[in-house]
Amino acid sequence: MSTKHTLSVLVENKPGVLARISALFSRRGFNIDSLAVGPTENDAVSRMTVVVDVDLLPLEQVTKQLNKLVEVLKVVELDPLASVNSQVVLVKVRADASNRSGILETGQMFKAKIVDATSEAIVLQAVGNADKLNSMLEILEPHGIKELVQSGVVAIGRGPRSITDRSRH
Amino acid sequence: MARRTEGHTVTDTSSSAPSPAAMARRPGNARPTPEQVTGAKSLVLALEHVGAEVVFGIPGGAILPAYDPLMDSTAVRHILVRHEQGAGHAAEGYASATGKVGVCMATSGPGATNLVTAIADAHMDSVPMVAITGQVASSSIGTDAFQEADIRGITMPITKHNYLVTDAAQIPRVIAEAFHIASTGRPGPVLVDIAKDALQATTTFAWPPQIDLPGYHPVTRPHAKQIREAVRLMAASRQPVLYVGGGVIRAGAHAELLRLAEITGIPVVTTLMARGAFPDGHPLHLGMPGMHGSVAAVTGLQRSDLLITLGARFDDRVTGQLSSFAPGARIIHADIDPAEISKNRAADVPIVGDAKAIISELITTIEAGVGDAADVNPHTYDAWAATTKGWAQEFPVGYTAPSDDALMPQQVIERIGAIAGPEAVYAAGVGQHQMWAAQFIGYERPNSWLNSGGAGTMGYSVPAAMGAKVGEPDRVVWAIDGDGCFQMTNQELATCVINDIPIKVAIINNSSLGMVRQWQSLFYNERYSNTDLHTSVGSRIPDFVKLAEAYGCVGLRCERPEDLDATIEQAMAINDRPVVIDFVVERDAMVWPMVPAGVSNDAIQTARDAAPVWDREESEAEEQDTDADHDGK
Ligand SMILES: Cc1ncc(C[n+]2csc(CCOP(=O)(O)OP(=O)(O)O)c2C)c(N)n1
Ligand SMILES: [Mg+2]
């Protein structure tokens, strides 16, 4: 059983909110796997996607503690089966004539884009869920990964309903 | 997944005063034409409109603009303290004695950081408080400017909410919100940090401001289904206990609690934060549970089959080792803060809401007497109530007088309580004297017992007593302090003398950091590392009587039991200035009963190596294996 949970947190778009939330996680001893923040369709609201690594009981605490923050509008745990999630990875791989085509092939397989290329390295940009990206990185590993940067996970529920509907009242 | 219940109206939790939000909405307060004012003036007007009567504080560079219009305010009294920690605890004492929001003010940097201890204290004990700090000018924020400290960042984990205001136009709204947040839901401290340029800027003041808190909706009305479930468990229970915490006091639910106890006949325990929520003289009262709780209260919880938990939070000082706490009990947990429910102990019936509303609903359901409710009456719990009462009579909290004629600290505190009576207010420091003050004074009304329960802040007593006396000038206010604690904040005696705040301070002088010394006696082979204060044994540094006199207080000293009552009465007769009494007491006295930290509450000791000797018949009747410990060894 995975203990990873994805929380969508709608917050007021105000300075200091991110600090407040990350401070809460560290103070209560909750481990964050990934955190992504950005604007939403509503100017007054930002949305955070937080992936936490906790058991169910502590998860309930996280959620309740988040809800206590005055600037938090709504906390929703996304059901992995009823949601899609995605992150971006940029990876700079050592590439010369001998291995370049192998790298390109791998990139194609994972629908990655070549965003930069020189005689010594290629930068691939791939989008997808963590499993897919990890498989790609594993295959690229033997070529020599010079640099790697990943975004936090963003996630959204499937279907027509929106969690933002009733966040302001 | 916790979901916030939507659509509930926010109501004030304090019984007497209207909520700041209500005040803000009150049409009489509306000013038809917005005034042109400075940000500073806007702050003072906002404080006036929100109903703040007193501000405890110290000026300095960044907050200086606010002090100018404050000088002209007739509605808001500013009391100049001697240390910002004193301002914070005074605001707490004021709030805890009156149920209103306490206000403190400080300048940026060190002024603000000096407030931190008191803010943390208010956060732990859910005290409604608003702290206002000056901040360096907004253009200098982040540059390590003179007296810059990121007080908003520093206080994030110890406030219910906090603000940094850099735009003068926001001041009225932020002040209205701060008071609203501090006093509603689970009360707590809110800090408002205002940049100096915002205080100096010209702005318009209009009242009431538009409160904009889309994410703040404390649930106050309990769910009817949960109330029915609670009553069902109560009907099925034969050994229930009302486990009452400070939430009942903050909610002003004492009258409802008394009624609930009386219609059900269920025994009551009151935690350190709840002393006074239920009359000590009531036959159903088993006393205080926890590390230094009474045998009846601790054992009542341990052997209960149902804890009806009202505004309490299963603190480790109450539960002892959590895994062995009340092992046979099901749990009804009522609290305004959903995050407290099932945090430490899983609840069978969680009830989110205001304690006053919850207890009222329980009463209504029980009094209707339909279905399960018909069984919830004193007859159902007869045997249990008699058993617990038997424990209370058999194992009262007491102390043994020494053979010589030393003055016993417990006796001093007991006599102060007896002479000053239940109408007085008692504010304790932290340590042995605090526990004795919780044990040996009879509390009959809420808000008569003030202490630092969650944080255990030495230095709380004198400034908290000062704040309480400002809020309740007609009551006698006693600080029950330790010789150690007193030396942390006694400078506020100057504030008391100058501002005509005649508190009474009892220093329980055992010449040591007594509580720490007790642990050294019990757990560190009587190796007294750094706990001797030299305040009476060998030397008097300082001489508390001279110190009191230097401040312009009356200083008294009492060293013999035969002088005790006369000294207390002498202090009671002085009302024109503060009185400080140096009670020179036996230093080896210990706080009993005691459950050592981290062990099961079943291991309660009534004195060193002495467990309660249980009545034989009764211990045989009990099937709990923990009885082995209770066999009188
Ligand atoms: C600010 C602070 N520092 C240290 C402690 C640890 N501490 C708890 S009780 C105590 C001794 C208090 O001494 P005193 O005021 O003389 O009270 P007594 O126990 O002797 O009655 C100490 C040092 C504390 N609670 N708070
Ligand atoms: Mg002492």
Overview of the structural elements:
The complex is a heterodimer of chains A (169) and B (633). The model of chain A has no long low-confidence stretch (mean pLDDT 93). The longest helix of chain A is centred in the middle third of the chain and has 13 residues. Chain A has four helices and nine strands; from the N terminus they run βαββαββαββαββ. Chain A folds into two domains: 75 residues, Alpha-Beta Plaits (2-Layer Sandwich); 71 residues, ACT-like. Chain A, domain 2 (Alpha-Beta Plaits, 2-Layer Sandwich), CATH 3.30.70.1150. Helices cover 27% and strands 40% of the residues of chain A. With 169 residues, chain A is α+β, with helices and mostly antiparallel strands. In chain B, strands 3-2-4-5-7-6 form a six-stranded parallel sheet, with helices on both faces. Chain B has a six-stranded parallel sheet with strand order 11-10-9-12-13-14, sandwiched between helices. Chain B is globular, with a radius of gyration of 25 Å. The two termini of chain B are 48 Å apart. In chain B, α23 links the parallel β19 and β20. Chain B folds into three domains: 203 residues, 3-Layer(aba) Sandwich (Rossmann fold), CATH 3.40.50.970; 207 residues, 3-Layer(aba) Sandwich (Rossmann fold), CATH 3.40.50; 176 residues, Rossmann fold, CATH 3.40.50.970. Chain B contains 24 helices and 20 strands. Chain B is α/β, with parallel strands linked by helices and 633 residues long. The longest helix of chain B is centred in the middle third of the chain and has 17 residues. The N terminus and C terminus of chain B are likely disordered. The chains are: A alpha+beta (169), B alpha/beta (633). At the A-B interface, α1, α2 and β4 of A face loops of B. The site of thiamine diphosphate has 19 residues of chain B, from α17, α19 and α21. The site of thiamine diphosphate (TPP) has 19 residues of chain B, from α17, α19 and α21.
